[in-house]
Design a protein that fits this description.
alpha/beta; Immunoglobulin-like; four-stranded mixed beta sheet; globular; about 120 residues
Amino acid sequence: MPSISPFRWAVLFALAVPFSGAVAAAAAVAPAKVQQVSISNFVFSPQVITVTAGTTVVWTNADDDPHTVTANDKSFHSTAMDTSERFSFTFTRPGEFAYFCSLHPHMTGKVVVKG
């Protein structure tokens, strides 16, 4: 096995130290918070979801019919989603956010956001 000169060890060390620091910094970044809501049989499931501020909620339409996700306070609104289409919204402030399907107003749900 060939020996490595002290100069090469120094170069390898100099290259490795910044890289390991970058890996440590990347590991310190908090993972994204995502919660899922399914739309199936004309029902949002779960109908009420509790999340922390900064969480993204993703609604997925599993029905054959189109649906929307529309906040009662108009803070978010999706277009009509066909089967397997998704809509997402990130909740940045605490509160209760009631929503419904504008095509089928009897379909309702709520996102409760904790601080």
